[in-house]
Amino acid sequence: MQIPCHFRSQFEIAWRDQNQVASNAVRRRINTRHKSGPDTERSSTELELVQRDTADVPRVLPQDHEGYALAFFFSSYLLPSTLSHHHRGFLGCVYPVWTQASPLSPLRPAVNAVAQALLEAWSFRNPNAHQSLARSHYVQAIVAVRRQLQNAEDIDDEVLLAMLLLDMYDGIRSFLGGRPHLESPHVRGSAAAMESRRKFPVSSKTSQGTLLGVRSRIVGDALKKGEPVSTDVLKWPTSTQNTPKTPGIQLEAINVEVANLHVSASKLKAKCPGMAISASQLLAIANGLDERLVAWTATIPDEWAPITLWGPDTIPRSVREAGLYQDHCTIHKSIWVADNFNWHCFSRMKVNLVTLACLEHVNSPAADIARVKAHTTIQDLADTVCASVPYHLGDRVEARRIDDKSVQYPQIKGKATPDEHYVTAAAYGGTFLMKRLVELLQFGPFLRAGQQRWILGQMGRIKKIYLAESI
Question: pTM for this one?
């Protein structure tokens, strides 16, 4: 099914008169959050989708809820016109593969599941509800993936992308249900499928991006959960031609080593017998990785460098009142660049945590100085993540439209907030930021006084913005 390219903001099509509708829906959602029973709201398929008067968009769209959900997903989350500007993981590969996929491809129902779940979320309906229209697409996608794995000799891009989208669907439901998204059978399945995929040459940019998307998800999961990563994942790109050396991919390669270092350090802390490496050796590895992570910041393009803002001329009062840690904040080239920097901070914090663990087993005159340095570094990096909150959330403190341009964001004096940021910050900002704030809580004993409470407050704010259940 092709989506007309002239539907630039599909959310506007449905929600011309959504103010009262949204208010009523939010009130119903809050009042019935802890109740069970049949949903008395009208089905989403019963809503008439009305378009404002324009020259190129029909006044009334057909009653095709599936088509509308796809259009909303592609226009609000994939933004094809800007995908080439930054490395955005596997999502940058979805649209070109989807347009060529057959009706029986597992990618079709997988995309439908994610699109429907996101539309329901932004329509103030809960994708976790048993009435959700996304669930049937999710089940169809799982069946199609299994069928493809059983019958196909090669694991192609469509299968891998379907697996990643199924994981994304699980993540959406976990986020809105207030549950951590930790265990993912789809990520494990995609990792296993890669062993088969590696037997075949990867030449196209789309296949390359899909492969790197799988790797990114595996590395991110391992780093978050403290699990080892097979060094084989670093060899995957070697089967491709002209693998891009973007800052995100370079950081990811370092993080494979960070994840494995953290696993070794946990064994040291548990005093596992037969350790093949000493605390001094681990400390040297940690110092080397921290140096490489610091050097990574010198390899990024100039336009990726974060900009620090101070004062009322650049940080609106409403943003300060909504959530500003200390007296400054940072802005970035894009929401993806901001997340890369926060991921970088988390990686360095993990490395310095290993440094502190190793220093407990090392007798050296310089140990006290190294301990203070590592502790200070963790605090400074936590401050950096907190400084990115206004860029992700602006002054939002409650549920609003995905394309609401009345939201205030910090910005350089005299410059306007880019149109793209209004949508991408709303679409991705909350989920990206929630992951990083949860990660910060792991460092509770090392945070500044009152910082943990502030972080918890911002997590609660995100839940209100996205109508997520309490954890």
Answer: 0.82
